Amino acid sequence: MRVQRVLAPGSTTESWTLLGDDLRPVDPVESFLAYLTAIERSPNTVKAYAHDLKDWWYYLDGRELDWKSVDLEAAGSFVAWLRLPPLARSGTVAVLPTVEYHCTASSVNRKLSRSARSTSSTPAAASRSPTCW
Question: CA-CA distances (angstroms) from residue 100 to 3, 52, 84, 111?
Answer without folding.
Answer: 27, 21, 10, 19
